[in-house]
Structure formats: structure tokens, C-alpha cells
Amino acid sequence: MMLSSDQVPAASKSRESFFPGCWEHAAWGFGVSVAAGGPHRGRWGSSGGPGTDFFVDPDGTLGLLLPQVEIGPRLAPLLEEYGDLTTTRDPLPPR
């Protein structure tokens, strides 16, 4: 799926192209972020400044967060817990 697979060429993924560490486990599909590695590999979704966030895991698990609170220190603990949500099995085989 082009939407949920990395569309950023390797040559564009320099340390200076975004922020340090960005490309270690992240990628961009068409308009959504894609987890390219780590425990949530294959997850795609998007986050907004007001704290809204959604993700879709390869097994179809959907996460939707609508706190209506600007992202900042007050919301950080909730976002961390929400981001750690996962299914009990790895739906993608190792590469």
C-alpha cells in the first residue's frame, strides 16, 4: 500500500532534513506517518497540534485520541501511554 509504506527516498533522510533521530523508526507514506521499525512497525497514522491522533496497525487495530488539549507537558503522559498501545502479537514477519 502506498499510503502506509515509506515514500521518502533514502537520499532525503539526512540528519539535517528534519530532527535528529526522526528517521530511525519513522517514515512518511502519502499524508500519514509510518512506523518503519521498532515495536509498532507497519503502524500508520497522524497527529495534530490540538492533541488529536489516530493510528492503524497492520492487523486492523485502530487507535483514536481526541483530547482537545494542545500538545504540551500536560498531555505528554497520555500521549506516551496511547503510543505504547499494541496488539499481543507482531502482525508483520521480521525483515
Question: What is the distance, rounded to the nearest whole angstrom, between the alpha carbons of the first and last residues?
Answer: 17 Å
- Indicate the structural class: alpha+beta
Question: What helical percentage do the residues reach?
Answer: 10-25%
* β-strand number: 5
Q: What spatial order of strands do you see in the largest sheet?
A: 1-2-3-4-5
What's the shape? globular
What order do the helices and strands follow?
Answer: HEEEEEH
Give the number of helices: 2
Mean pLDDT: 75
Oligomer class: single chain
Would you give an account of this structure?
With 95 residues, this protein is α+β, with helices and mostly antiparallel strands. Helices cover 13% and strands 19% of the residues. It contains 2 helices and 5 strands, in the order αβββββα. The protein has helices spanning 22-25, 76-83; strands spanning 26-28, 33-35, 44-47, 53-56, 62-65. The protein has a 5-stranded antiparallel beta sheet with strand order 1-2-3-4-5. A hairpin with an 8-residue loop joins β2 (33-35) and β3 (44-47). The chain is globular and about 35 Å long. The two termini are 17 Å apart. The mean pLDDT is 75.
Question: Can you summarize this structure?
Answer:
With 95 residues, the protein is of the alpha+beta class. It has helices at residues 22-25, 76-83; strands at 26-28, 33-35, 44-47, 53-56, 62-65. It is globular.
